Amino acid sequence: MLFDTYDVIVVGGGHAGAEAAAAAANMGSRVLLVTMNLQNIAQMSCNPAMGGIAKGQIIREIDALGGYSGIVTDRTMIQFRMLNKSKGPAMWSPRAQNDRMLFSMEWRNVLEKIKNLDFWQDTVTAVLVKDKQAIGVSTAMGMKIYSKTVILTNGTFLNGLIHIGEKSFGGGRMGDKASIGLTEQLVDLGFKSNRMKTGTPVRVDGRTIDFSKLNEQKGDSYIGRFSFTEPIHLKNQRSCWIGYTSKKVHETLRTGFHLSPMFSGRIEGIGPRYCPSIEDKIDRFADKDSHQLFVEPEGWNTIEYYVNGFSSSLPDYIQLKALRQIEGFENAKIFRPGYAIEYDYFPPEQLYHTLETKLIENLYFAGQINGTTGYEEAGAQGLMAGINAHLKFNGQQAFTLNRSEAYIGVLIDDLITKGVDEPYRMFTSRAEYRILLRQDNADFRLTEKSYKIGLASEERMEIFRKKQTKVNELTEYLRTKSSKPEILNPILTKAGTTAVVSKQKLATVLLRPQIKLSNLMEILPSELFRAEDAESVEILEAVEILLKYENYIAKEKEIADKLSRLENVFLKSDFEYKSLQFLSYEAREKLSKIKPTTLGQASRISGITPSDISLLAIYLGR
Length: 622
Known about the structure:
Layout: E1 6-11, H1 15-26, E2 31-35, E3 49-51, H2 55-65, H3 69-76, E4 77-83, E5 93-98, H4 100-112, E6 117-121, E7 124-130, E8 133-139, E9 144-152, E10 161-164, E11 167-170, H5 182-188, E12 194-205, E13 215-217, E14 240-244, H6 247-254, H7 261-264, H8 278-284, E15 292-297, E16 304-311, H9 316-323, E17 334-336, E18 339-345, E19 363-365, H10 375-393, H11 407-418, H12 442-453, H13 458-480, E20 482-483, H14 485-494, E21 504-505, H15 506-510, H16 534-548, H17 550-567, H18 585-594, H19 599-603, H20 610-619
Parallel strand pairs: 1-2, 1-9, 2-6, 9-19
Antiparallel strand pairs: 3-5, 4-5, 7-8, 8-9, 10-11, 10-18, 12-16, 12-17, 12-18, 13-14, 14-15, 15-16, 20-21
């Protein structure tokens, strides 16, 4: 017998699968990661970048909880930028360009060092089910492998179909075969499935690009990090470049629209609204003569470039012809054309907040199988599924995050409560409590929670405790320390703000828009702040935000606390909503379908009115 019974089987080795396997194994589960190709662990199938608006916050949350996406990103990045620095700190979002090949190699290196984690290269064709409980998987090689829980993280592989013009062929991504049979089995078990579509652009030989015709986009002068525990590895950075399409490019692309699978109806799946193909952009924004392109290197030592913004499923010869009409790409050679891929997903209303399925116990879904798009969203779901699979079979309380605690909480709540009608992508605008869910304070929000459930290590917790102590000490010093005008006024004058005539608390001075904490460094005790290492910069940033935005943070927390009372009113999963005639028909139908676990979740279901919630609360004696 090749296999003993595992605690957790994770199906799929992408970003969701890698985080799920790592989380469960680090908590003490015996885990088997089954994937079609062990050479492609956590492969960056699309753009070679991590983070970005709201996505950077998610990576920092994954890291604060004890996941690895931030660590691997830091070790393999080739450029760092903090986006939205001109806006308030709620909008600041770290983003990294990464070496695509090193990223996958580092993820495998990390996973291979985790004890309790085994690997098996094979295709899972079915989930083994007994008495409506998942008990393992069967594979294309004829293996039956048993486990206490199963996590499906199949990405774009379920009945994946690749489209390039009029050509279509099966595949989970270019070069990898599709996964056949699993969708059909799950549908036979009673699950509902649907189709989605995503795409990717041409990859270009950098030796054939004239970069003198493009605008250079350098990384930040200060290189930040994603992980709260990693040192800053990056010393030098690779530039990205910006180019533009033109009216002529658009005219060339239009000549192939009648051959596009998207316009001909051959693609049934719904595509991403916020990352459309170039032909979709031209069609939807017909009044625009130009679209911006980001030309991104795929790594340190490769000539391959990713043309972000030029995703397409048009015929390959039309893609190349249009590409060569872009300034700087006149002589371009490509490694492969862009393509669209259609795949099966399962509407996420079929899940609990733990990501366990409602239909089959001990079966979890994470990643693009739930209708999301993006490495970060997938990794977050994988982490939470891995945590909850471990807790479930050990008889421990489930671990979930609410909307005021994490973007991960917003992500999962949106999926479970609202469902998806297009590939779900996280934005800061989706979170009601953005000022609470900043990228700088993810460890303050989440590390202690993770430590209590056994995922965040003692070492990670100790790093957090030291940072917490330093933040508190510096905050207290600034609140209580007053300085005389002769000390403050040279600093204030230099910063372009009015002088003072009496002693002022340093925290009060810091409230001025022109003053940053870095302006006050020369009058702070050296033991409270050292030179520019990553930890000190983060402490400085955290304290400045806490003091400058104190009233905003307090107000938002007050609102969150008030609304959290609805989250404490629990609803039974077998609640007979259809018998409650005082509720609207739509409310009864949707509550019966989604089966919310709390009154708060019920209030966020589309079509449920405040009146419905009030009547339901009265009925419950609230």
